[in-house]
Amino acid sequence: MRIQYSEVRVFCLLLIMGLTAGLALAQYEVKSLDLDEKPFPWPEGKICAISLTFDDARLSQIDSGIPLLDRYDIKATFYISPDDLKKRLDGWKKAVANGHEIGNHTMNHPCTGNYAFARHKALEDYSLKKMAKELDDANTLITSLLDVQPKSFAYPCGQTFVGRGTETGSYVPLVAKWFLTGRKWLNEDSNDPWFCDMAQLLAMEADNKSFEQLLDLIQKVKEEGRWLILAGHEMGESGFQTTYLKTLEQFCEYANNPENGIWIDTVGNVAAYILVRRKLGKE
Q1: Full-prediction pTM beyond 0.90?
Q2: How many angstroms separate the CA atoms of 113 and 278, rounded?
């Protein structure tokens, strides 16, 4: 049978695509320990860290989620949006008193104008000066209402830029200057404690997932000795962008079992610990 030239060309193309895909997948499978780094020294008895984070001061966080966390004595980080903060102010004061961390999430939650809800506050139309005012105003409001100075920040929509085209700029340096941490969203992996940039922490979605789905992420983090940051929004039984209370309760029970070796704490506390251990590791 005679093989046509076009068939050979197609075969070669498919072979190249297959090899390229294999190499790409192999890159994602490289672990931090492949770099000859020693295992990170988490607190005694712990093999990894996990931080629960929730955005926007959704009303369900105060009404349903935080009471559940308090029953298990688990502390989370909450990135506040002013309007809903004011609607449950007494609840947020109690959350602070109970040891939960309050973070900055800007005053107006600007995102790309490609999202209809953000067209009037599009990052493409922002400047670094305007973003600096967003951060400063939110810090001032949180401090005045809750008597805490935020040291953690979450990028609205996980987006870290202002402007457009050749005028696009990153506001990561601004966050790095003002805060201990900056958390992104919808990322593909956890954080390597030896390497991660505290101003650009990776976060994986907790919303609309079963405990079994979260457990897959947790097992990987335990194997690699990393820091997993989970990001959610609503806290309830069902609905869009909702961390299910059933999932959260199962997670709390699992995390509180010392045999599982998990250090569960706020973003600020874990970050501060990592920075100290990094410094000691270099001395």
Answers
A1: no
A2: 39
Sign of CA dihedral 118, 123, 127, 133: positive
Q: Let me know: does 146 contact 124? Beta carbons within 8 Å.
A: no
Between CA 20 and CA 34 the distance in angstroms is: 21
Q: What is the CATH number of domain 40-282?
A: 3.20.20.370
Distance, CA of 220 to CA of 229 (rounded, Å): 13
Q: How far apart are CA 195 and CA 203, in angstroms?
A: 15
Asked whether 162 and 123 are in contact (CB, 8 A), the reply is: yes
CB burial of residue 80 (10 Å; 0-12, 13-18, 19+) = buried
- Alpha carbon distance 257, 278 (integer Å): 27
Tell me: the pLDDT tens digits for 60-91?
Answer: 999 999 999 999 999 999 999 999 999 999 99
d(CA 245, CA 76): 14
Phi, psi of 118 (to 5 degrees): -105, 5
Local structure of residue 195 (DSSP, 8 states): T
Phi, psi of 48, rounded to the nearest 5 degrees: -165, 175
CA distance 108 to 125: 14
Among 62, 118, 57, 111, which residue's Cα sits nearest to residue 90?
A: 62
The structure tokens listed for 127 are 């400047």
